[in-house]
Specification:
177 residues; mainly beta; Jelly Rolls; 40% strand; Secreted protein; signal
C-alpha cells in the first residue's frame, strides 16, 4: 500500500517527528483609545458680603470693587449678568430707600475666548418704579474671568433718610450662548 502525502501534511509530519513546533506570530502592533469627557462648566462665584460705613456727606458711597469669578467652557461663549433685587432698603423700616448704582469691568481673563462688557452701568430709580439695576458681559468662546462689580449707595442729600442698616442683594447669573 502506498501512501501519498500532500506537501503540507508531509511538512507537518516532519516537523512533529523532529520535535519542531511551528510558531504563529501574533500582531506586532495594536491600538487603544483613551477618551476624556469634559462636562460643560459654567459658574459665577461671588466674593464675601461687603459692608461700608456712610461718611455722612452728600457724596454717593462707593463700595470697594468686588471681584466675581466667572467660568464658562461653552464653545459658543456665555452671558453673565448681575442684578440688584431692588434699591437699598432700610432693614428696620422698608419705607426708607436709597437707589443703587452698579458698574461692571473686566479685571482679568484667560482662555481662547474673550469677555466684553455689554452693559457697563445701571441704576435703580425707586421713585419712578425702576427697582432693578442690571449690568452684563458676554464671552465669545471658552474663557474664565474675574469681573469687578462696583456698587454705590446713592446718597442724595444726607439727613433726608433714616439712620440704620440699608441692604440690597446682587445676584449673578450665567447662561450658555
Amino acid at each position: 500500500m502506498k501512501f501519498a502525502l500532500r506537501p503540507i501534511a508531509l511538512l507537518s509530519a516532519v516537523a512533529v517527528a523532529m520535535g519542531v513546533v511551528a510558531r504563529v506570530d501574533a500582531a506586532t502592533t495594536d491600538t487603544q483609545k483613551f477618551t476624556a469627557n469634559v462636562a460643560v462648566n459654567m459658574s459665577v462665584t461671588a466674593p464675601s458680603d461687603a459692608v461700608l460705613t456712610h461718611d455722612e456727606t452728600d457724596a454717593n458711597q462707593a463700595f470697594t470693587a468686588q471681584p466675581w469669578s466667572v467660568i464658562g467652557n461653552s464653545q459658543n461663549g456665555v452671558s453673565v449678568s448681575f442684578a440688584t433685587n431692588g434699591p437699598f432698603v432700610n432693614t428696620a423700616d422698608a419705607t426708607f430707600k436709597r437707589d443703587a448704582k452698579l458698574g461692571l469691568s473686566i479685571n482679568s481673563q484667560t482662555g481662547p475666548g474673550a469677555f466684553t462688557v455689554s452693559q457697563a452701568t445701571a441704576q435703580t430709580d425707586y421713585a419712578n418704579s425702576v427697582n432693578v439695576a442690571t449690568v452684563s458681559a458676554v464671552s465669545d468662546g471658552v474663557s474664565n474671568a474675574t469681573l469687578d462689580l462696583s456698587v454705590e449707595f446713592i446718597t442724595g442729600t444726607f439727613g433726608t433718610f433714616a439712620a440704620g442698616t440699608y441692604e440690597t442683594i446682587v445676584t449673578g447669573t450665567i447662561t450658555a450662548l
